[in-house]
Amino acid sequence: MSQSFIMSIDAMGGDNAPDIVIDGLEYYLKTEGAEHDVQFLIHGNQELLAELLAKAPMTSARSTVQHTELEIDMDMKPSHALRRGKGSSMWNTVEAVKAKTASVAVSAGNTGALMAISKLQLRTKTGVQRPALAAVWPQKDGMCVVLDMGANVECDAAQLTEFAVMGEAYYRALFHKDRPSVGLLNVGTEELKGNAVIKAAHERLSNSELGINYIGYVEGNDISFGDVDVVVTDGFTGNIALKTAEGTAKLVRKFLRESLQASPWSKFTTFLNVAGFRKLQQRLDPRRANGAVFLGLKGVVIKSHGGTDAIGFANAVGIGVELAESDFLSELERTLNALHDEDDNIGFIV
Amino acid sequence: MSQSFIMSIDAMGGDNAPDIVIDGLEYYLKTEGAEHDVQFLIHGNQELLAELLAKAPMTSARSTVQHTELEIDMDMKPSHALRRGKGSSMWNTVEAVKAKTASVAVSAGNTGALMAISKLQLRTKTGVQRPALAAVWPQKDGMCVVLDMGANVECDAAQLTEFAVMGEAYYRALFHKDRPSVGLLNVGTEELKGNAVIKAAHERLSNSELGINYIGYVEGNDISFGDVDVVVTDGFTGNIALKTAEGTAKLVRKFLRESLQASPWSKFTTFLNVAGFRKLQQRLDPRRANGAVFLGLKGVVIKSHGGTDAIGFANAVGIGVELAESDFLSELERTLNALHDEDDNIGFIV
Fold first, then answer.
1. Position A69 in a domain
2. Could you tell me the pTM of the whole model?
3. Mind listing the pLDDT tens digit of every residue in chain B (350 residues)?
């Protein structure tokens, strides 16, 4: 059994909360969770949760419920959530991390509200202007990390270099790889390509002595099919790239379904090969990539997709567990400080 | 038989030129080309071409070769191509359109050089600063057009509105749809999302009375899976979105191949369903989307992917034929003039 810790859970966030949240915790404990000594501090409506927990014995045995009737709506504006959100399940979920009662928070609620509440309560690390949202994405030989996913629509070169450092530390904690490769997303791999911000970030990362395995520019196709572990980009481009990839994967699945159901014979042979298609289904399952982390806060907050189901939520919980059991936050602190010291030494101004 | 015209072909551009160029023309004539009264003016090395044309009787019967020994290298810088490119196969291909000998030019050569040579010789239409590169992309119920694909890394709001107008005219010419829908690529569909440039373009397009079917913001997943015909974005985002989509499609194909070859039984049932998989293969064939057009020039230039084969080149030729047989250039002229008149009337300054 690994080290013991508490995870703070927003039971009321997400399109199908609280059902998928409790089902997700139970699924997690039944699968990989058995090896981990995690307790859950669950925030939400006690009455609703008692009913669900009665059907989830493994979760029930590891959980404490902190009652609240307040919830943050999925479409509430962040500013509104900050003014009126105090005491809500999301607020209390993050507050438990601030109070050091819990090591990590997980919510499938409203992204903007979660960002605003997390930033207000946990504060950003020294020198970080705004946290970035980092996602994991399937790649030909495993997974890659892409950031920012949309928290920062416009970024300067200092932010992009911070993303590189934070994404690298995140990848190490999550996938236990010593020197993950880091690339800057651009429209070509030649030195001359890109805009001024990207060129400045490239120059800064190329000349850094932080020991990061910076491999230079990468292109859109490298996200799914390249040899890069951490893909760094601004929040506008990152959001569009990942949504484009989602749409493409969905389109290919549709073509596959239609092509293989075009005739009775085709349907029959597909049926015969149910094992092969189940394997494919598993590899293409978008729930495997659920769970993004806000990087740059003085605490760990995981954002699950709002529309996910129990299996997807369990994946986000798994990411939270990996981070809680690692020295992620202190590593992040160490590398960010080293970056900012180097910035001062070379007089990096953007 | 439809109207008669001449297409100017750069036989020496592309990784596998001139072979795939001549094979591509022959493939085109053998398939859909039979219905079209197109003649080819082929630029390149006469000796090499004579050998290839001897094995391509349909192309041979419709072609004239204009000899040159000069070629533009695939990695030559655009500035270099402008200074030294005169008399090369690419230069002569574009020059034939300028001289009105040909209606349209097709090249699989160096993109930057083709852009520079086309802009120098054909000039941009009044008010257009730089041409945009428009690609077609598979969508759930057909194809969509995405622009800019990377010709303009940084764009202002006036350029984005021009892209919308040009993309709309292109879609009409290519797919014969009266009122294609036009969307602006953003990180969300709410009015508040995005940066200042996108918001200004959105405002401009929303208040236009040009009769364009502008449907507002669209997201990355809409490129493959939405209900939008023309997706407008800057060249940085467009290039990354399409390359990301390419990478994802390639990844899913890899997963499919591996999952269905994991066991002898799986291989066997897949073999039994060869018709279903052939259908899938066809729908996923990236060559179907080959052929991008430079929009905003006083002439039509089609850029084929440099690494494509004969079937991909034939697809680019097909796009050129569609445009040559339509009133595309005069429609583009009409709508761009209407846009710029409206800009003047409302005092649109960016």
1. yes
2. 0.90
3. 568 999 999 999 999 999 999 999 999 999 999 889 999 999 999 999 999 999 999 999 999 999 999 999 998 999 999 999 999 999 999 999 999 999 999 999 999 999 999 999 999 998 888 899 999 999 998 999 999 998 888 899 999 999 999 999 999 999 999 999 999 999 987 776 788 999 999 999 999 999 999 999 999 999 999 999 999 999 999 999 999 999 998 998 888 888 888 788 888 888 888 888 888 888 888 888 899 999 999 999 999 999 999 999 999 999 999 999 999 999 999 999 999 999 888 887 66
Question: What is the count of structural domains for chain B?
Answer: 2
Of the candidates A262, A288, A314, which is a domain's last residue? A288
We report the CATH number of the domain holding residue B247 as 3.40.718.10
Same domain for A184 and A78? no
Whether chain A has a CB inside 8 Å of the CB on B57: the answer is no
Q: Yes or no: say if A130 and A158 are a contact pair by the CB < 8 Å rule.
A: no
C-alpha to C-alpha distance for B306 and B303, rounded to whole angstroms: 8
Residue A150: its chain B contacts at CB < 8 A? Answer: 187
| Cross-sheet strand order for the sheet of A213-218 | A63-67, A37-44, A4-10, A104-107, A300-303, A292-295, A132-139, A142-147, A230-232, A181-185, A213-218
Domain shared by B245 and B263, yes or no: yes
Q: Please judge whether B247 and A226 are an interchain contact, meaning their C-beta atoms are less than 8 angstroms apart.
A: yes
Disruptive mutation site among B186, B248, B257, B270 for chain A (greatest number of A CBs within 10 Å): B248
* DSSP state letters, B140-196: TTEEEEEE-SSS-SS--HHHHHHHHHHHHHHHHHHH--SS-EEEEE-S-SSTT-S-H
A30 touches chain B (CB under 8 A): no
Exposed, middle or buried: residue A178 (CB in 10 Å: 0-12, 13-18, 19+)? exposed
Residue A148 shares a structural domain with residue A273: yes
**What tokens were used for B251?**
């990844």
B346 assigned to some structural domain: no
Domain assignment of residue A197, given as a range: 138-288
Q: Are residues A143 and A282 in the same domain?
A: yes
